[in-house]
Amino acid sequence: MRIAGAFAAKVFARSAATPYHVVKSMAIAPPERLRVAPPDIRTADPTVADEIYAGYFSFAGKTLQSYGASPFTLTPPSPAWRRALAGFSWLRHLRAADKTLAQANAQALVGDFLALKKLPAEDPAMEPAVVARRLLSFFAQSPVLLDGADADFYDAFMMSLAKSARLIWRALATGQAQGADRALCAIALAEFAVCADTGRKIAPQISRTLSAELDRQILSDGGHISRNPQVAVDLLLDLLPLRQVLAARGLQTPASMLRAVDRMMPTLRMLQHGDGSLALFNGMGATELDRVANVLANEDTRGAAPLKAPYVGYQRLEARDAVVLVEAGGPPPFEFSSSAHAGFLSFEYSLGMERVVVNCGAPAPQHEELREMARATAAHSTLVIDDRSSARIARKDAGRWRAGRILEGPGHVTVERLEAPGATTLSLSHDGYAKSFGLIHARELILAADGMALAGRDRLLAAEGAAAGAAGPDFAVRFHLHPRIRAVELGEAIELQLATGETMIFEADGVWPQIEESIFFAAPGGARKCVQIVLRGKAAPDAELRWSFQRG
């Protein structure tokens, strides 16, 4: 409650300055011309242009056919669909088609939107992040949209740019823009300042705002404060084009932006498996490999991936083709916790191109109803007591300032790393179960130097000041397996069969491992069935389980 109260106080302090910023935002005049258009480094698919021309609009897993009507007047099948439509990121597909017909279609669709009467404030199209995405999309696609445009369209387009900039500025000033959305809004305003001929007057203030958000959100080790790898990818997809237009204009790039980009790239590589996928921690869903590749292609210097990011809270163990990625941090700050998971001390394990042990990951937008389940501790490869999560997450209907955020979680997480000739050992603990059960979860992971074995030990320790008592409820140590992995019981052991033909043996001391059903939320085509290995015991001080994965 204290965290939520402090956050509300911060928002109130921002809103107190609103009149000044409203006046300042009114000084943003519609441009007469654009000086430069930023590139869009997201991958485009020309075939999508054909679908749009045929009246099919597919976003967030939902498809509507317009039957000749404006898609902006249709009843959206979900808020996520409306956000994607109104963000106009899909314009890049029409531009990629490189056809006169596609260009005319793009102008017609944007014209439909510009002709709309004032949208209600509760429309998802008016959310600060959506307005910012629309502004960035319009700038990136302006060469196509303005080529041959008539005077009415041109004037309406320029008016829309200025109106969007005003809305974003006010959203930043009042606190309506929250969390990572604040950086996105600041980037959009910075593009207005660089690309529009009327942006010069606001450039100094916008530069300071962007620098402040980047310094606040990008940690010293390059991780994003939300601890969500996807947020870092999305920010880089917008920061890199901004960096390019600054260079094209001969303007100095803010030092904070240079620091942010230089730090974020290596941390992204640290969180990659051998197949290029990013670890499924804290809101990360299916990796869009083309986007990650496009981002990393802009890295100026490329060395070995870092092995630890202590500020954002991740660790990497690697030996030959074996990689273990470990969640070694606590919950992010309240404001940035809306996508965070209760997966503390969970890990993912891959061999070459094959992911073996995974977390369940975040579901795609069309499966929003599964998000709560995906955020639970049981959806992660870690220890869970009594099927209760190690963090308390507010419900979606908990109110604007609390909904979906972490209200309570581990306050103390320890990490010790030991590099030795024969193996790398990672010793960790968290106190997320101290209040509810009086127990600390301690985990040890040992990766052999030849990459042939991964061993682990999970223990429950008495929390300081906890009363001694009899054995409590059951606990489970879960190892969710990637859908490509086949698990077969072999008496007291389990054989894992990889798609490559390689086999592994999983064993545990003094406990019979069980194979149970699971679900992998982060598959590119939607949720897929998979299995998990589960070890069970009684939750009590000094309870201990040892286990290992051994390659054949």
From TrEMBL:
One of its GO terms (cellular component) is cell envelope. It holds the Pfam family Hepar_II_III_C. GO terms for molecular function: lyase activity. Its main location: other. InterPro entries: Chondroitin_lyas, Hepar_II_III_C. Transmembrane segments: none annotated. Residues 303-548 form the Heparinase II/III-like C-terminal domain. Gene3D superfamilies: 2.70.98.70, Chondroitin AC/alginate lyase. It is found in: Cell envelope. This is Heparinase.
